[in-house]
Structure formats: structure tokens, C-alpha cells
Amino acid sequence: VQCTLVDNLPDILTENDEDVDLPPQLVEKWKTEGRYEEEMKELDAFFDRTGHPRAPRFYIMKWLSDYITDFGIDGYRVDTVRHTEEYVWEEFREVCDDSFASWKQMNPEKVLDDNDFYLVGEIYGYRVQEGQYSDFGDRKVRYFGKSFNALINFDLRSSADRSYEAVFSEYSKLLHSELAGFGTMSYLTSHDDGSPFDKERTKTYETAIRLLLAPGAAQIYYGDEVGRTLIIEGTVGDATLRSPMDWDAINNNPEKQQLKSHWEKLGQFRKAHPAVGAGKHKMITKSPYVFKRVLSEGDFGDAVVVALDLNAETQTIDVGNVFKEGESVREAYSGQLLKVKDGKVSLKTKSGIALLESIKK
Asked: What's this model's pTM, rounded to 2 decimal places?
């Protein structure tokens, strides 16, 4: 794949399998810094261990895997996948997996879980509805499995005309059928997408709900949580999406602080409950809009109930079969403690949101 993006990002010959020498500038840099021998020793060990030729792509894979073996990072987000050959990502996956396994073996006290290395890929325009195959017009390519755990989903940022339920139910169904065992990462604003969900920042609260309560992983772009402006007069191209953070306003503007708190509450609820992103979605009632997310994997289980668009009056919310009769539950957005009676809870909230969770004992 020939890919020269701009003059200062020339094409790397990833298709080349022949041995190549290191760039003389890099050799000179290493010698000046007094680490040439150590770097060469590491390269020799890598190529001896893997059996790969000293081709351009494998040098890069070695250097990227250093972040894994040196720091224990557990995932990469790849930008952009189609700019090189498909088999390159399978080779990269193997290098990452081996490096991560080695790091875990060498650092048992730092291991967080039994999960494997996680690779997220970006294929511009990919939508979760495409399933495991990306359609390039002349061919369809499967990047899941031997290469990527998940792909970035470009669909959510175009969902303004669809209800929460339409989006949430569709995503959940796809993630537990065609994409079972894999994942997707959605966003509503990014550094290079000129059509964000809310360019004028008039739906900042809805943005948080739509992104952080959607099934799958969520990518927050800096400033989403405080409504950072996406319109800068006089800019060209993507520069308008990259305005500086107004830290003074964030620290002193009550409206921005309130919006940030909204994002924090939803984000903390999502963090506390894997069921939000990974559980199966099911609507309980249409009005008020109430749904549940339930996750069950092996010995692990998690379940939550969420209500949206509530009015300011006292509301009775059907919790389905998620919570037991007489159980005390917590409404995480406001901190209220409620008791289940006849399969329902009653509450009054100014936010219009109810995030219901079991109280951990």
C-alpha cells in the first residue's frame, strides 16, 4: 500500500521483506546519547526471538512493543488501519501479545487482570452496522480476530435524528450477535471529523448521555465535558476542532462546572458498572423511558437500571427484575437511597436522569 500522507510523513515500505540498515541519523543520535550498543543489543534479541527479517515494519513493531515491555501498557489505538497491508496488523498483534505476556510474567505484582492486549483500529467511516467486515467498494476486509479487538464506530456522531432507544437497542443487538466477542468504540467529537454530533455545542448534556450510556466503548474528546468551542473564526480545516481549553472558565464558570459534573456522574457510573458498556440492553418502559443493562460472564455479574427524560415531579420507575423486592438501591446521579416496592421505585429529580444501582455491601 503506497501512502504518503504529506511531505513530512513519507511512505514507509511496509510491503518490503528485505533487510534494511538503520537510518544513519538514528545511529548517530544513539551514539551521541551513549546508547548505541544497548539499542543494537535489543534489536538483535528481538529479531533472533521473532525470526522476522530486519524489514522496515518490524523495526517499528519492535519499538512500539518497547512501550509494552517497559511500561506495561495494555492497548493501542491505531490510526489509520487501511494505510498499510492487512497482514501487517496480524503480525503486529503477535508482537504485542508476546510482549504483553512477557511483561506480565516479569511484573506479576503489577498485573491488573487476565485480559489480553487490546487493539482498537480506525477505518475512516466504519459503522457498527457493517459488522466484522469493512467494505472498501472493490473488496471487503475482516480486521477483527487475528488483528483487532475493536474498531472505532463513526455511526453515533450521526445519530441526532434517532432516539436513545433506537441507537442503544441496535448497538446492543449487534455487539451481542455479529460482533460477539469483539467491540466498538464510539465518539461524538474528534480531532479530525468536521461533522461532529454537536458542533454548535447546544446539546452538551445530551452528548454526554448519548455517548456514555451507549453500548460499547466510549471515546471522549478533550473539552466535550465542558462544551469547549468547536468554531474558531479564521481557521482552516481541522484546526477549528482543536481550540485551547479555557481553564479559567472551567474553574470559575458555574455553567461549565455544572456540565462537567454531569459528565463526571455519568462517567463514574459507567466506570463502576461494566454492564453499561458491555451488558445486554433491554427497554423496560417507553414512558418514562427506562432500560436495563445486564452483564453476566462466568462468575461475574452486574446490572443497572437507567431512566431518562424524567419530569420534575415524583416519578415511579419500573425496575423490572433487576432488583429484589424490598431491596435498597442507590440513585447514583443524585445520591438518593430508594427502596423497591412492587417492582418499582419512586423518586423526584431535577436532572431528569436516574441511574439505579445495587448498594454494595
From this structure: 0.92
